[in-house]
Amino acid sequence: MKRILFFLATALLIAGPNSFAESPPAVDGHDAFIKSLRERKGSDAPKDKGVKSMSKPRTLSPVVSRFKGWFIDITDKAKPGKLDGDGVVEGISLASKSRDTSAWQFVETKKGYLVRAAAGKYKGWYIVVDDTAKTRSEGPTLTVTPALRLAKRPTANSHWKLTLAKLGLVLEATSGKYKGWFWDFGGGDPSYKEGDREVAVNVILAEKVVAGSYFAVKPAK
Fold it and tell me: Rounded to two decimals, what is the model's pTM?
């Protein structure tokens, strides 16, 4: 019995906490929501990605904390870099007011969904995961990583599973080191003035679904 308990404990340590993260249950309207995203054929998306359809531009906004109603965006101070040999920028943010950079498209592929910038300076770039990003503790029971990047082209880790849950849309990584992790944001992180709006560079991945993992999705204006 002791030997069994020892091996079980060892397996738990090796697997890590994210091995037990689960997608939230989908609401009855999930299928209708997914269908509503199939608005375009996606003819301008990369031909080698098995694109099936594409949505019109949408905005994504947290549904909790002082950032409720802010918009997933990219800061004007984004830091350029490289990932898998391609150009990326670091600085996916929440912004208090929407701009053209707040508009995103959901690109349906055989491997899951790509999230692509629909307008602005980085139009046509994709939200991807950088596996080299380090993790950190966010409170006593949560591990997160600032691993999201905006890339010129889809990378090996750029596909997402979409689940419309009771509180909003949940986006889950489908591959790579952070497979099974979820979009989130630092609710206590500071923001700063950027033009006529406030911006917080605080969009992250979390090892499990938390309050910050739910987003309201609306047509971009």
Answer: 0.89
